[in-house]
From TrEMBL, chain A:
<feature type="transmembrane region" description="Helical">
    <location>
        <begin position="12"/>
        <end position="31"/>
    </location>
</feature>
<keyword id="KW-0472">Membrane</keyword>
<dbReference type="InterPro" id="IPR007227">
    <property type="entry name" value="Cell_shape_determining_MreD"/>
</dbReference>
<keyword id="KW-1133">Transmembrane helix</keyword>
<dbReference type="Pfam" id="PF04093">
    <property type="entry name" value="MreD"/>
</dbReference>
<comment type="similarity">
    <text>Belongs to the MreD family.</text>
</comment>
<feature type="transmembrane region" description="Helical">
    <location>
        <begin position="133"/>
        <end position="152"/>
    </location>
</feature>
<keyword id="KW-0997">Cell inner membrane</keyword>
<keyword id="KW-0812">Transmembrane</keyword>
<feature type="transmembrane region" description="Helical">
    <location>
        <begin position="103"/>
        <end position="121"/>
    </location>
</feature>
<comment type="function">
    <text>Involved in formation of the rod shape of the cell. May also contribute to regulation of formation of penicillin-binding proteins.</text>
</comment>
<keyword id="KW-1003">Cell membrane</keyword>
<feature type="transmembrane region" description="Helical">
    <location>
        <begin position="68"/>
        <end position="91"/>
    </location>
</feature>
<protein>
    <recommendedName>
        <fullName>Rod shape-determining protein MreD</fullName>
    </recommendedName>
</protein>
<keyword id="KW-0133">Cell shape</keyword>
<dbReference type="InterPro" id="IPR026034">
    <property type="entry name" value="MreD_proteobac"/>
</dbReference>
């Protein structure tokens, strides 16, 4: 952990807080299926940009918070988010070099895997209809990735977060 | 390592109650986010009510007044009916109906997961809410409390796929189990015989058999009954009477806090009391042996224990049920 005072680390946490709000904000019923995985998107961006700052532990803690918010078993979202971060971290060196559309594709695959695991876990705990509609949110997230990525990159440059 | 940790956490959370306090404390910190996301809606409502026109308000006032009048009219009848019901139950020697207390709660959030039907309400452990507590709206049963946090609680709705509720047809008392389907406008009755007397438009009320929900609250109305000769059971679909996806104000029902066993034993003691009172001569041979053991442990206040001595002289002449009624009226 870098302990520089002026590295604007609070912006990262603020973005996570906003992501958490977005992930519980009310939406019309038909659009619920398409809710993007906000926390996962933000985590993916920050792990790509600041791997020394945001890592698997952050993902785990955020996942626990999300579990409490959603009322799922404690550890379910934590597992999924940790997995996403692990995959992003292991692909980090290559992923940073990719053009944006390729990044989006990789994100789609990673989030798709995560959602499948989510589906599997919730089927195990007997909580949900086992349906593949969960994949939609991965697709929407992948479509949102370029915007999130460019936006946050601009923010990062401007505030010189590292 | 973290993967192992999260899997362990999941198993522990699913099997034991060890993590519940941790969870509810985290809920205390995190649940305001539902309130924050609900703010725009609240603000909008506030603004709308500020600028509501006078005529609209007058019309609403008029409507509410008529409604109150109607309800009060019905209430007058209800008092008499309740009285009558109590007396008839006394005659039948069955246990008395419990009077339930209700408290108003407000919806503060809906579960973001589209495949579950759960809502958050603004009353929690500190307000005396307990796990499994039934929740109503103005029109019928909505669901039950499944998770407690200090100032909020999560309510599982009737239509969730993991939820079932024992019901009976109001018309003839036919029992069935209504399961959620994941569709907010649909419940399904499981294992109803093809020849069962159930038809479209029947009102289903809670039967109280699961000992979770109080008996007699409306649950759903039957929408269609499909008799398929290829199926072993009839397919019965019903629409919940409560506005599950529209109600903003809910009622929490506080029932008797005693466990069913306690209630049964209390009822048995009351019964014994009544018997002793009614037939002092016949019962006196057997009761005194058990009475000293029973009475101190019972929750019966001492005046009730003293009662048997008073009507005893008149009792042999009267029918067994009569003294009970006269005592109830006072």
């Amino acid at each position: 952990m870098v302990s520089t005072r002026n590295s604007n680390g609070w912006v990262v946490w603020l973005s996570f807080a906003i992501g958490m709000l977005l992930s519980v904000s009310p939406m019309p019923a038909f659009a619920e299926v398409f809710r993007p995985m906000w926390l996962a998107l933000l985590l993916a961006f920050w792990t790509l940009a600041l791997p020394h700052r945001v890592g698997m532990t952050t993902a785990f803690v955020l996942g626990l918070a999300e579990d409490v918010l959603y009322g799922t078993l404690l550890g379910q979202n934590a597992l999924v988010l940790t997995l996403i971060t692990f995959l992003v971290l292991s692909l980090q060196q290559r992923l940073r070099m990719f053009p944006m559309w390729q990044q989006s594709l990789v994100i789609l695959v990673i989030f798709g895997i995560a959602q499948l695991i989510q589906l599997w876990l919730s089927a195990l705990t007997g909580n949900r209809l086992p349906t593949l509609a969960l994949i939609w949110s991965a697709v929407i997230s992948a479509l949102l990735w370029p915007w999130i990525s460019y936006g946050l990159r601009g923010l990062r440059r401007r505030l010189s977060i590292n | 390592m973290l993967v192992v940790l999260s899997i362990t956490l999941m198993v522990v959370d699913a099997r034991f109650t060890l993590l519940k306090p941790f969870r509810s404390q985290m809920g205390l910190v995190l649940m305001p986010s539902y309130l924050v996301t609900d703010l725009p809606q609240r603000l909008w409502q506030g603004v709308a009510s500020q600028f509501g026109s006078r005529t609209e308000l007058a019309a609403e006032n008029e409507k509410l007044k008529t409604e109150a009048l109607l309800l009060q009219g019905r209430l007058q009848k209800l008092a008499a009916l309740t009285e009558q019901n109590v007396r008839l139950r006394e005659l039948l020697n069955s246990s008395a109906l419990v009077n339930e207390k209700v408290e108003v709660a407000e919806l503060i959030g809906v579960d973001p997961n589209p495949f579950t039907h759960r809502i958050l309400i603004n009353k929690g452990e500190r307000d005396g809410v307990v796990l499994g507590q039934p929740v109503l709206d103005a029109r019928g049963l909505m669901g039950q409390v499944v998770e407690l946090m200090p100032y909020t609680a999560r309510v599982l709705l009737l239509t969730d796929t993991t939820h079932s509720i024992p019901v009976q047809v109001n018309r003839n008392g036919l029992r069935a189990i209504a399961s959620g389907t994941g569709n907010p406008e649909r419940l399904e009755l499981r294992h109803v015989a093809d020849t069962a007397d159930i038809k479209e438009g029947d009102l289903l009320v809670s039967s109280g058999l699961g000992q979770r929900f109080p008996a007699g609250y409306p649950v759903a109305t039957v929408k269609e009954v499909i008799h398929d000769s290829g199926q072993p059971f009839a397919i019965v679909r019903a629409i919940p009477t409560a506005a599950l996806n529209r109600s903003r104000y809910l009622l929490l029902v506080f029932t008797d806090s005693r466990s069913p066993e306690q209630r049964a034993s209390d009822a048995a003691i009351a019964q014994e009391e009544a018997d002793r009172q009614g037939l002092p001569g016949a019962a006196s041979a057997t009761v005194p042996a058990t009475a000293p053991a029973l009475v101190p442990s019972a929750a019966v206040p001492s005046p009730a224990v003293a009662v048997p001595a008073v009507p005893a002289p008149a009792a042999p002449a009267a029918t067994p049920g009569a003294p009970v009624i006269s005592r109830e009226r006072h």
